[in-house]
Amino acid sequence: MNQEPNSESLSATIIQLKQLNEQLQLQVAAHQRAEVEVRFLHGIAQAIDKSRDFHSALTIALEKICQFTGWQFGEVWIPSPEARVLTYSPAWYGEDRSLEQFRRNSEAFTFAPEVGLPGRVWASKSPEWMQIDREPETIFLRKSLAVAIGFTTGLGVPIIDSSDRVLAVLVFFMSAPQEENTHLIKLVSTIAVQLGTFLQRQQAEAALRQSNIILRSIIDSSSDFIYVKDLQGRYVTLNRATAEWFGGTIEEIVGKDDTQLFSIETAHEIMQVDRSVMLTGESSTSEEIVPGQGTLWTMLTTKSPWRDTQGNIIGVVCVSRNISDRTIAEIALRESKQRYATLAQAAPVGIFHTDAKGQCLYVNERWSEMTGLSATQALGTGWTQAIHPDDRDWILAEWNHATQQELMFCSEYRYLRPDGVITWVFGQATAEKNADGEVLSFVGTITDISERILATAALRESEALYCNLFAQTIEGIFFIDPQTKRILETNLAFANFLCYTPTQLIELSLYDVVALDPQIIDDNTQNCLKEKILSLGETPYRRSDGSIVYAEVNVSTIIYNGQEVACIIAHNVTERKQVEEALRQSQAWLQAILDNSTALIYIKNLEGEYLLVNVWFSLLFYSNRTGIKGKTDYDIFLPEIAATIRENDRKVLAARSPMDWEELLPHEDDGLHTYLSIKFPLYNESGEPYAICGISTDITERKRAEDALRSSMATNRALLNAIPDLMFRINRSGIFVNFKAAKGDRLHLPAYEFLGKHLTEVFPSEIAASVGSCIERALVTNEVQIFECQLIVNQEFRDYELRLAVSAENEVMAIVRDITDRKRTEAEIRLALEKEKELGELKSRFVTMASHEFRTPLATILSSSELLEHYSHKWSEDRKISHLQRIQTSVKHMTQLLNDVLLIGKAEAGKLDFKPMLIDLEQFCREIGEEIQLTASDRQIIFHYQASERTTGMMDEKLLRHIFINLLSNAIKYSPADSPINFDLIGEADKAIFRVQDRGIGIPLAEQDEVFSSFYRASNVGTISGTGLGLAIVKKSVDLHGGKIAVESAVDLGTIFTVVLPLNKQV
């Protein structure tokens, strides 16, 4: 229950409010100027919308902009049809007649992209402010004309459509010098956006009108009856064919319902179908019997729901076709089919009837007797099950080919009855066509030919066996005439062997395909006739491309077509000969490699006995290369050296993998040499090692060089240790050569792991490329190069400075220093400056909001308090309480504003808690809608819920109230009276989708990215009160739920906010 304030607290409140009122008055003037600009923009938007075309809109805009902002002259430049240059538009404004000469002179100009002020604005798509006296004639081509008039300042602003295309360029001039005014540019740019929107809308409306004309022409030219009814069954529109059916004009029929056009019974039947379509929202196709031109018509009618742009059903769309003639024809067809069925049952052959696609419609009893299938089982594709499985695929292929190509079907095939009996039949079918030659169906017969087929089966089987053996064997077989040597017949295998076709081969002779002397061919043929069976071994053959292949050949004589011929069987051995030749070449290459290598190459068996050595091994250690076979290392080297070598061999065999060692071997001229020996086992086909192979390279000189280098490096390291930073030596190729560690250094890798690696192996690609460039510059310029980079060390980013200086030819010294602490200090300073700037902007926005939103309640408080102060002794208690309640209401309003400010402050500071609980979202949304509805009696909140099951979720009820109270309150505040507010909830498996839609003033496209910022209000809100905090609170509340919010809006059309929240956010 509210408590009445006492006199002391009231006096203190009055004093505080007076002080605050004095501060707020300082902001009034600025807000008044903003309101004037808003009214100007609103007025010019209305004038543009009322314009008859784009050029008249441009003329109005130029006049109003110049009169409001002080520009003396305004003009428009329009892209040419091919968009190559800008041309002068007839739309212009001049403060007085003296400026008309400047306009006429300008008409002669055109501007290409980047040329002149209009061309530069066209190309950049951005406004440009110009001081004319500061620009040369090459930049401002009309400078002499402008100076003659007295112009000193110019402004160009582009008009851009939604596809980022420049529609026109506005250009303004004035005589008074003026520095660039950003606010004025934004004001003119806003009007340019309105002009672009106006042109796009005009173009869309013209396209829609043209589309409607085309659609109406199509509908009116249709012979079908097309008509549309509303929810009350009244005809809204119809085509000419429908009007002629009803015996009137379109105008006479529109507005009537079916009871005025048909009998009551017929009308009720039609309207019942209409209501079913509108209630279910589903299309319906049915036959209707209706009167037409003195008789009854059978109409095939399709009815679909007619929906508005929101998807609401507002009527029914109907398309009807007169099918009376087709119905009469169907009756006659049924009578004809009855006569056909009677004849079919008496026929001695099987008869079948299919549709145009080969689907069975009918079979007679004789067909069922022959196949064992009933008439019902044969329907559709069931008849195919009677065909023998071995014949089914090819018969169906022939049948499909015949039906698709409209050919007569004729073939012999088998039926397999369910009892196992096989019946051979001769089947034939022909197409039934209508008067236009279109195939309607197929009629056919089957005749039992089993006895004839069985009589020839034995002969066919014998021939098939021979053909299969001849054709399918993988061996090449061909017959030749012994006298002429002509090829009489060949199988596919022999033709493929010689890269011919069988047809090509029978045009040739043995002399064409055998790569032997003709006399040898003749002798072999005569020997075959004499011996009857002859083996010729490997014989060369000549392929069609001239290449030579080989076959093992066996020849015998057979009787072919009544004469003795030679049958030749050729087995292809070409691949085997190629493998043998490749093996010989491989062995020769391997031996050449072994003999010319300066490394020692050798193979030993498992007992350590040498099986093979190369030339270099024999020159150094055992001159008798062939005599070394069977020798061991103990026969060649000193016992201690041989023992070491043998032990290493055993390790390789035990590990069953390659290994390497440095081994010492004696040379006669200069003692022991160091060899790098790589040894690996050799495996047999069973995967077991049978020998060990070794390759040993003399690295004695390299070892001596390494010793000298180590001595030099020791000296250098002592010098480098005096430098406290980590140091690397890197060569010109980017390879790390050496390093010097420093205590406390932190890198992403230990320093020793850099050695021998390339920059790209230890650094990310971008850093490696930059370091490589610095190395090259240092080597070229001989100057120190400094480079900073950032690396991830122990899962945190650290900053480093690299100083690179030339240390040797093609080598630099890189000194690496960790500068993370320094960088962090610099970042903290920058962050503090940015935070201070952000707080300044927030403070400015708060002061602007407070001056606007606190002014009215403060004025109310001040007025009521002053009246109470001076006249309370004269007033009744009711009047005093009335004024006190006005003060309390205003204080509550300001308290709510301050609560919003505190709430957004907690959110910005990350102190806003998320306390989820299980919520029935449908019930919650209905309660919120009803609560808001109580405060807005002139608006209707329409709630719609869509889900397969009840939607519940773990959400913060307090934050949800912030979200939807703000969204629904905004929708009501910025919408005209009596306009509905749509509030939708869509429940899905893992998320809930909320949508709030109004039909209010909308949000300008350019400002939609800013609407969730604290204290931000759109430029078109006018005098509607608000703080600019509601949507910021909504955004923070959505983020705490782990959700998303999106806005779709168009000026003067309305706004849709869509909120998507997970049903079970992980806390």
Structure report:
The chain is α+β, with helices and mostly antiparallel strands and 1067 residues long. A hairpin with a 5-residue loop joins β24 and β25 (689-698). α2 runs antiparallel to α6 (182-221) and α28 (921-934) crosses α29 (957-973). The two termini are 38 Å apart.
In short:
This protein is of the alpha+beta class.
**Strands of the biggest beta sheet: in what spatial order?**
2-1-5-4-3
* Global mean pLDDT: 82
Helix content: 40-55%
General form:
flat
Give the count of helical stretches: 30
Work out the radius of gyration: 50 Å
- From the N-terminal CA to the C-terminal CA, the straight-line distance is 38 Å
In percent, how much strand structure appears in the residues?
Answer: 25-35%
Largest sheet: 5 strands, antiparallel
* β-strand number: 37
Secondary-structure-based class equals alpha+beta
